[in-house]
Specification:
13 strands; 302 residues; mainly beta
């Protein structure tokens, strides 16, 4: 039964990879100077596709070997009913993978330029090497989003403001008490480019919980916004993602991740991911850890 479940998961994962890859082909088969946010978000009439077409969103990767320096073996939220009473002997080595895609559900809004997107991202932390616990999925996170995006045509020299928008974001781990974690956000975003550099700024506001709170003070740990810096050249992609609570004192917390992908063949790339901070997953929202993973990626930010 376990093998059938694992096989089903793998088939589903690579099926989604194939769908997204069909869209990604158009991006990598052209010169990089003509690529970027225009194609990924269909910002111009030349790059606009039909609605309800699957396209890439966040990176899609598999890290078969990921070292976690301090696994969260007994998760504890600041909410008393969300404190786990059971200690689990997690291994420091696990597998992590992420799938992510989006589809445009409406276009030509507001002066014929704005688009409405539906996106979905799932991440999995899998204790595949932990035979003592029957190789469980330590954490699964689900993140559906509704995003409105509007193209911009502003520039200061070579620095270009490409797009702006807002969205509604839900993130949860789909678990019951005491390990249930979820929250809802109103997000804003701004996308910019400078030659081979791409910049994202994405602040958010959390919606107030009306029936209890799985993760009190989550924005004090995970942060109130994130910034992405992406550099692409000769097939290499370097990214720096930083989340912060915007407190510039001893109470400053957040999360920082650096990734590097190196081309192997066609779209297959070697992938390195190094991160430190709070909120690597929902169950770890108030848990600080360092992670180092190596694997492969088929889709990057750009």
């Amino acid at each position: 039964m376990r093998r059938k479940i694992i096989s089903t998961i793998c088939i589903s994962l690579f099926g989604l990879l194939s769908l997204a890859q069909e869209q990604e082909d158009a991006i990598f088969n052209q010169d990089r100077t003509n690529q970027g946010l225009n194609e990924r978000w269909e910002l111009t009439p030349e790059t606009r596709n039909k609605t309800f077409t699957i396209s890439p969103y966040k990176p899609v990767y598999v890290l078969p070997f990921r070292y976690v320096n301090k696994p969260n073996e007994q998760p504890a939220s600041l909410s008393p009913i969300n404190v786990s009473e059971e200690h689990k002997d997690y291994k420091k080595l696990e597998i992590k993978f992420q799938i992510s895609f989006k589809t445009k559900i409406s276009q030509g809004l507001f002066f014929g330029k704005g688009d409405l997107w539906l996106a979905f991202t799932q991440t999995a932390n899998w204790q595949a090497y932990n035979d003592g616990l029957s190789r469980p999925f330590r954490e699964l996170n689900y993140e559906p989003e509704l995003i409105f995006n509007y193209p911009l045509d502003l520039a200061i020299g070579d620095f270009k403001f490409k797009m702006v928008g807002f969205g509604f974001n839900h993130q949860s781990n789909g678990r019951s008490l005491p390990e249930s974690r979820s929250w809802n956000r109103f997000t804003m975003h701004l996308g910019m480019e400078y030659k081979k550099w791409t910049f994202f700024a994405k602040p958010w506001l959390r919606f107030r919980e009306t029936k209890g709170d799985d993760n009190p003070q989550i924005t004090d740990y995970i942060g109130k916004g994130e910034f992405n810096v992406i550099y692409s050249n000769w097939g290499h992609v370097f990214t720096l993602n930083h989340r912060t609570n915007f407190r510039f004192n001893h109470r400053n917390r957040g999360y920082t991740e650096f990734t590097w992908s190196y081309p192997i063949k066609n779209h297959l790339k070697a992938f390195l991911a190094v991160s430190n901070g709070y909120g690597d997953s929902m169950i770890d929202y108030n848990w600080n850890q360092t992670n180092i993973g190596v694997g492969i990626t088929l889709i990057e930010w750009l």
